[in-house]
Amino acid sequence: MPTSLPDDRNLRIMLWVVAVGFFMQTLDSTIVNTALPAMAASLGESPLSMQSVIIAYSLTMAVIIPASGWLADRFGTRTIFQIAIALFVLGSLLCAWAQSLTVLVIARVVQGVGGAMLLPVGRLSVLRTFPRDQYLQALSFVAIPGMIGPLIGPTLGGWLTQTFSWHWIFLINVPVGVIGALATVRYMPNARLPGIGPFDLGGYFLLATAMVTLSFALDGLAELGFQPAVVLMLLIASLGALTVYVLHARRRKQPLFPLRLFRIHAFSVGLLGNLFARIGNGAMPFLIPLTLQVSLGFSPIKAGLMMLPVTAAGMAAKRLATMLIEKYGYRVVLTTNTVLVGIVIASFALIAPGRPLALTIIQLAIFGAVNSIQFTAMNTVTLKDLGGNTASSGNSMLSMVQMLSMSLAVTSAGALLSTFQQGIGRHSGMAVLPAFHTTFLCLGVITAASAWIFLQLPPEVARGTREEVKQAGEI
Question: Which residues are listed as membrane-spanning (predicted)?
Answer without folding.
Answer: 12-32, 52-72, 79-99, 105-126, 138-160, 166-189, 201-218, 224-247, 259-277, 297-316, 328-351, 357-377, 398-420, 432-455
